[in-house]
Amino acid sequence: NDLLQLVQDTIIIGEPEGTAVNTKERQQLFDYATHIPDYTYIFEIGTRFGASAIVMALALKQKKIKSKVITIDINPDPVRIDVFRRNVLAVGLSDYIYHIVADSSFPCFKNLRISLLHIDGCHLSEFVENDWKIYSKYLNGVVAFHDFYQVHDVVDKLNLAVFHIAENTGFGVR
């Protein structure tokens, strides 16, 4: 996709290869984001430098979906936050992304309608399980677990049907 390549060429990744959502996984997140209904949200735990939030927001913009990406940055490092903000501005997607710097257990919403939940914060099992417990009650759609092989024990406990795995990302339906 030419637009995804433009994003790839424009954003300032700021991290070593292999530590973030890779190009194939970004494409999959983009593809899933193109199918969410209007007036629901894409919710991401773990912002880092914003690559996955940006590709999901790009899908919303390209498909003219009336929605937003909400991303919770669990690491309040000012350098990473600055790179994230510059990345979002560089691709012109500020209107599509809400950025929150907080612990992932931050109780920020009451009536949140999530169609795509991307869990990519702390990859320790107890944190992934906690993120799921907090946000799954708002989910009516797809969940993506990054670094799936690190958290497959949690996913097994959740009894989700994992229907697609790309590299290190497992996608499940609730």
Overall mean pLDDT: 80
The total of beta strands comes to 7
Supply Rg: 15 Å
- Treating each run of at least 4 consecutive H or I residues as one helix, how many helices? 6
Structural class: alpha/beta
Instruction: Report strand %.
Output: 15-25%
Helix content: 25-40%
Distance between the termini: 28 Å
Strand adjacency order, main sheet: 3-2-1-4-5-7-6
Order of helices and strands: HHEHEHEEHEHEE
Shape: globular
List the helices and strands and how they pair.
Layout: H1 2-10, H2 23-33, E1 41-45, H3 51-63, E2 68-73, H4 78-90, E3 97-101, E4 114-119, H5 125-135, E5 139-145, H6 148-158, E6 161-166, E7 169-173
Parallel strand pairs: 1-2, 1-4, 2-3, 4-5
Antiparallel strand pairs: 5-7, 6-7
Helix pairs in contact: 1-3, 2-3, 5-6
Summarize the structure.
Helix content is 39%, strand content 23%. It has 174 residues and is α/β, with parallel strands linked by helices.
Q: How would you describe this protein?
A:
The protein has 174 residues and is an alpha/beta fold. It has 6 helices and 7 strands, in the order H-H-E-H-E-H-E-E-H-E-H-E-E. A 7-stranded mixed β-sheet has the order 3-2-1-4-5-7-6, sandwiched between helices. Helix 2 runs parallel beside helix 3 (51-63) and helix 5 (125-135) crosses helix 6 (148-158). The two termini are 28 Å apart.
Q: What keywords describe this structure?
A:
174 residues; alpha/beta; 7-stranded mixed sheet; 6 helices; 7 strands; 23% strand; globular
